Amino acid sequence: MASPQIRHVAVHLLTPLLMCLGMGLAYLGAFHQPEPNHLAVAVVGDSPQVKVLAQTLKDKGGNALDVITVPTRDDAVNQLRHRDLAGAYVPDAQHPELLVAKAGSDTTAMAVELVFDQVATNQGVPLTTTDVTTPSSGDPTAQGIFFLLVALSIGSYGSVAAIGAAGAGLSMRIRALIGLVTSLAVSLIGAALAGPIFHVVGHDLAAVWAMGWLYSAGIIFVGIGLHTFLKRWTTLVMMVLFVMLNFTSSGGVYSPWLQNDFFGTLHRFWNGAGFVEGARGLLYFDGAGFGSRLAALFAWFAAGVALMMIAALAEKRAAAKELESPVEAEAEMEETVGV
């Protein structure tokens, strides 16, 4: 009598155990040992000494550093503002200066400082660091956008189990409408937290809210579409897509310049990176890179719509669709979610 119950418990425990393994692999794989990976830096000037310094850094850095020279300080600032550089060193016999953009990534700025602190120390002069960006008053490290991403993500993928299980008897069109309204609620909560409550977003709050709605809707639509095929395993797959691979590649903690190539590649098109980097570009870099990041969010939204359409066709073609029992639906909605 106890054996079937034990097997039932064991099957239900499989999901959190796989979550544990996946979270450990993803988070430790992405964050346990940050080190420069083609960190783009510049030395300002066109003298022979500048070229020698740049070549020396390139030779010593290997694949860790991509070193170029730029003719003027203004050119360096411009490339930092366009997010082409992580930092730029302005040599001076008495007062060398390091230019960084902390709003793009505070941890990347720290890595750049470590590189050029050593250069200034070897010259025996103090190094002055200048931040060319101005983070908002409520987000001095510019990492608040990442934590907003976390809140939006949890609200989004956590809603999928409820919509998929409790709404299994509803038409796909109704589930999609519920998902759209849910994503609106999630985005409004995020906007309230990021704006008037914590002042993470100092301007363009409406645009950040719209991005949050698009981001949330994309996640929920993907989840609703997947639920038709995956059922109770949807929660695990959503965790893989929108936590394990999403948070780690978003650039919120470490930029691709401090991660391995796997997470750096995901950063180019994953939806979390689309939201984080799109919001940063809008808020701190005069819109640099905003268009491509917005396109990524629309692509994920479109993928979610396509999945729901495929799922709707699959449901219609099912000769005899067995509805989930209330007990199964209840068990699915009680799946633990976490970050």
Structure, explained:
The protein has 339 residues and is α/β, with parallel strands linked by helices. It has two domains: 39-131, D-Maltodextrin-Binding Protein, domain 2 (3-Layer(aba) Sandwich), CATH 3.40.190; 138-333, no CATH class. Helix content is 64%, strand content 7%. The protein is built from 13 helices and five strands. The model has no long low-confidence stretch (mean pLDDT 90).
Number of domains: 2
- Supply the number of helical segments: 13
Helix/sheet category? alpha/beta
Instruction: Tell me the series of helices and strands, N- to C-terminal.
Output: HEHEHEEHEHHHHHHHHH
Q: Into which percent range does the helicity of residues fall?
A: 55-70%
The rounded distance between the terminal residues' Cα atoms is 36 Å
Unreliable runs:
none
Shape: elongated
The biggest sheet amounts to: 5 strands, mixed
CA gyration radius, whole angstroms: 24 Å
Please provide the count of β strands: 5
Lateral arrangement of strands in the main beta sheet: 2-1-3-4-5
Mean pLDDT: 90
Q: Can you summarize this structure?
A:
With 339 residues, the chain is an alpha/beta fold. Helices cover 64% and strands 7% of the residues. It has helices at residues 2-31, 48-61, 73-81, 106-123, 144-166, 172-197, 205-230, 234-244, 246-249, 261-267, 271-284, 290-317, 326-333, and strands at 39-44, 65-70, 87-90, 97-100, 128-131.
